[in-house]
Amino acid sequence: MEQVHLFTKKQKPTHISHTLSFPTHVLEAFSFPQGAHMMKFEAIDATDNAWKFCLSTRLTGAYPKPVLLRSSWHRFVEQKGLVPEDRVVFFMERDGMLRRYTVKAQRKVMILMGQDIWVDVEDLPLYGL
Q1: What is the pTM (predicted TM-score) of this model?
Q2: How many whole angstroms separate alpha carbon 79 and alpha carbon 2?
Q3: Which residues contact 30 (CB under 8 A, 6 or more apart)?
Q4: Does the keyword S-adenosyl-L-methionine apply (predicted)?
């Protein structure tokens, strides 16, 4: 299966306390039921834990504005200890009709030769952080 990067998003205080907005173009990677504006999906993290998220789009307005509902997103934020300036990265793998999503929670640990070095939050203890 080929892994496709869906998006990377640096966390702002509103993402930590409320909800995570998705870029609109990412909706192409999800199969919403006909006529639905909400769907549940599962994403696997770096430790093979499955996270159940609820992706919703608004019913009115110029564009759908997809977001992960707080009820499903906040548990992930708390368990990963996310803080502003951390980032989350979503990927999708497709094998025929089967879609598998993965999510990474990362923290910038240093800048090396002008490049930001990001580490999965699960690996932070290895860096003494």
Answers
A1: 0.91
A2: 28
A3: 39, 41, 55, 99
A4: no
Backbone angles phi, psi at 73, to 5 degrees: -80, -40
109: exposed, middle or buried (Cβ count in 10 Å: 0-12, 13-18, 19+): middle
CATH number of 2-127: 2.40.330.10
Give the Cα separation of 93 and 56 in Å (integer): 21
Alpha-carbon distance of 42 to 95, in angstroms, equals 16
Q: How many residues does the chain have?
A: 129
Choice between 127 and 80, residue whose per-residue pLDDT is larger? 80
Q: Considering the chain, what percentage of its residues have pLDDT values greater than 90? A: 77
**Residue 17, Ramachandran bin (φ over 0: left; ψ between -120 and 50: alpha; else beta):** alpha
DSSP string, 45-114: -TTS-EEEEEEE--SSSSS---EE-HHHHHHHHHHHT--TT-EEEEEEEEETTEEEEEEEEEEEEEEETT
Q: What is the pLDDT of residue 79?
A: 95
**Domain locations in the chain?**
2-127
